[in-house]
């Protein structure tokens, strides 16, 4: 399975001719959706979902499937795709990928903002994408997509999450708000934890791909 990082919080998974995209929001490149058969969306914030680009993707591929929580689905009523609502504990197959749903809520953010629903996705028992939360996956996770910067998180939470999950490899996500100095700090944090756990932990640059076992 091939994993490609796109801007900020978007990743693309490819297995043979099957293409699955997670969280193609407004901070990521729209080309992430080229040829996609299915899209997973963790929550409703604009850096994770953009209705207009999903509409264009669905017009290009009328069989496009979108799997997400009920809050997001309510905002996509004008998108001509097959939209499926999922919740914590669900499991489904889409475009040749097996997916399990883990988690219910976004991490607490601004005190005057309501906490929105947030579902994480475990794809092919290999890649876990928690969305905007440090949700315990509840199972061994070979590849973790770990948030490394956000208004709702502290660096210590990221490190604690990596130590709790103990993945074989971890790649940075949610890093699109950082300039080069901030990205350098993320690289340093991940490098230190990689050395400590003797595991691959690093930041993929936008457009960079890795092949997973």
UniProtKB/TrEMBL annotation:
Q: Which Pfam families match?
A: Lactamase_B_3
Q: Which PANTHER family match?
A: UPF0173 METAL-DEPENDENT HYDROLASE MJ1163 (PTHR43546:SF3), UPF0173 METAL-DEPENDENT HYDROLASE MJ1163-RELATED (PTHR43546)
**By its UniProt entry, which Gene3D superfamilies does this protein fall under?**
Ribonuclease Z/Hydroxyacylglutathione hydrolase-like
Q: Which GO terms describe its molecular function?
A: hydrolase activity
Instruction: Kindly provide the name given to this protein in its UniProt entry.
Output: MBL fold metallo-hydrolase
Quote the InterPro entries the UniProt record gives: Metallo-B-lactamas, RibonucZ/Hydroxyglut_hydro, UPF0173_UPF0282_UlaG_hydrolase
Q: Does the keyword Flavoprotein apply?
A: no
Keywords, in A-Z order: Hydrolase
The superkingdom listed in its UniProt entry is Bacteria
Q: Where is the Metallo-beta-lactamase domain?
A: 7-174
């Amino acid at each position: 399975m091939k994993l490609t990082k796109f801007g900020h919080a978007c990743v693309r998974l490819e297995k043979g001719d099957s293409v699955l995209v997670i969280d193609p929001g407004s901070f990521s490149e729209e080309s992430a959706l080229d040829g996609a058969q299915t899209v997973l969306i963790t929550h409703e914030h604009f850096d994770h979902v953009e209705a207009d680009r999903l509409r264009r993707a669905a017009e290009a591929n009328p069989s496009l499937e979108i799997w997400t929580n009920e809050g997001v689905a309510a905002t996509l009523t004008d998108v001509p795709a097959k939209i499926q609502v999922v919740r914590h504990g669900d499991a489904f197959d889409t475009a040749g990928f097996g997916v399990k749903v883990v988690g219910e809520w976004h991490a607490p953010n601004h005190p005057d903002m309501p906490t929105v629903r947030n579902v994480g996705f475990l794809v092919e028992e290999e890649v876990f994408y928690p969305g905007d939360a440090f949700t315990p996956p509840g199972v061994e996770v070979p590849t973790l997509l770990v948030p490394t910067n956000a208004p709702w998180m502290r660096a210590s939470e990221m490190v604690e999450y990596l130590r709790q999950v103990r993945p074989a490899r971890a790649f940075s996500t949610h890093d699109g708000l950082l300039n080069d100095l901030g990205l350098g700090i993320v690289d340093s944090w991940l490098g230190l934890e990689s050395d400590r756990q003797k595991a691959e932990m690093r930041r993929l640059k936008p457009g960079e791909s890795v092949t997973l076992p």
